[in-house]
């Protein structure tokens, strides 16, 4: 069964661009092996991530992500069965939140800054889809 999961979290400590890149590179490699697709957004503090794949795989990987000490305040925003992938072209797309800017944060989140903890799952998904247009 194909499943989509969305969560928000925040970095435990300030992350350098190199440490964020390490997370993205590892995630891309691991996800490609598991046929997991998705998108990760980061803005110096907050993360917003969507994962799509087989239910068992999404569940297992989310368990490992949730145990990762590099972030905290994990909020599971949504997990649901889906008919098709929305992020089929990326093993794990990545974008800095400021690629969109204030106008889109207001459109999706009702705030002029990136604050995924205050977003609904639908708004988070909308933002992730908009940001996915900015990544290769
Ligand atoms: P191990 O590799 O055994 O690591 C154990 C713990 O060590 C980790 O939980 C972490 O706290 C720490 N650790 C591991 N590597 C580093 C490092 N380079 N620097 C500092 N501490 C480290 N994994 C995926 O497979 N797919 C994803 O989509 C994905 N997305 C992620 C998104 C975020 C925001 C974060 C923070 C991590 C993500 N990860 C993802 C990584 C995931 O959390 C696990 O680290 C990874 O799956 C390996 O799991 P493991 O149990 O083998 O941990």
Number of strands: 5
Helix content: 25-40%
Which structural class should the secondary elements be placed in?
alpha+beta
Distance between termini? 27 Å
How would you characterize the largest beta sheet?
Answer: 5 strands, mixed
What is the molecular shape?
globular
Mind telling me the C-alpha Rg? 14 Å
Number of helices: 4
Q: Strand order, biggest sheet?
A: 4-1-3-2-5
Oligomer: single chain
Give the ligands present. flavin-adenine dinucleotide
Question: What's the helix-strand series?
Answer: EHEEHEEHH
Query: Hey, roughly how much beta strand do the residues contain?
Result: 25-35%
Give the overall average pLDDT.
Answer: 91
- Sequence stretches where pLDDT stays below 50 over 5 or more residues: none
Structure, explained:
By secondary structure, this protein is α+β, with helices and mostly antiparallel strands. It has four helices and five strands; from the N terminus they run βαββαββαα. It has a five-stranded mixed beta sheet with strand order 4-1-3-2-5, sandwiched between helices. A hairpin with a 3-residue loop joins strand 2 and strand 3. Helix 3 packs antiparallel against helix 4. It is globular and about 35 Å long. The protein starts with a strand and ends with a helix. The mean pLDDT is 91. Bound molecules: flavin-adenine dinucleotide (FAD). The site of flavin-adenine dinucleotide has 19 residues, from helix 1, strand 3 and helix 2.
């Amino acid at each position: 069964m194909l499943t989509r999961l969305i969560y928000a979290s925040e970095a435990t400590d300030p992350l350098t661009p190199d440490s964020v890149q390490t997370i993205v590179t590892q995630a891309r490699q691991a996800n490609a092996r598991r046929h997991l697709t998705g998108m990760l957004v980061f803005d110096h503090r907050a993360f917003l991530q969507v994962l799509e794949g087989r239910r068992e795989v999404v569940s297992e990987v989310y368990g490992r992500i949730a145990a990762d000490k590099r972030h905290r305040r994990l909020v599971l925003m949504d997990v649901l069965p889906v008919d098709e992938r929305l992020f089929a072209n990326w093993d794990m797309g990545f974008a800095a939140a400021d690629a969109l800017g204030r106008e889109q944060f207001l459109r999706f989140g009702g705030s002029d800054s990136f604050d995924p903890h205050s977003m609904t799952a639908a708004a988070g998904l909308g933002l992730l889809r908009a940001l996915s247009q900015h990544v290769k």
